[in-house]
Design goal:
The chain has 124 residues and is mainly α. The chain contains five helices and no strands. It has one domain. The mean pLDDT is 76.
Amino acid sequence: MSKYVIHYTVHILALIALLIKVIFVLSTILFYYFDKTNNIDFYVYFLYWKNRTEFIYQICVAIVLIFIFNPFDNFKNYITKELSITLFLSGLFVIIGADWSEFIYQHKIKNKIIEKKKNIQNNV
């Protein structure tokens, strides 16, 4: 493959990944909305698309990273201002869309603090 084809493929995949992440965020919002309204049909529909778009996003970003950090090629040729902005936004979306409950709510220190608060409240 020519360097130009790879260069444009990387940019197109990065933009597709960003677009898919936006669709993921919208489907996640609608998923939680229909979960609250107890509309099972739309809940299942948006759960399906939430899971699929996250998977497609991860594949697109993985391919972009493989192209950029290929050890047999000079990856600096592929990184432009537009690509760096796209990857920056993708990184922000990953951080925002992460399941923080796994990290926050199941942490041992937080559980100990909650138990101490309950003990203090029970003693008062």
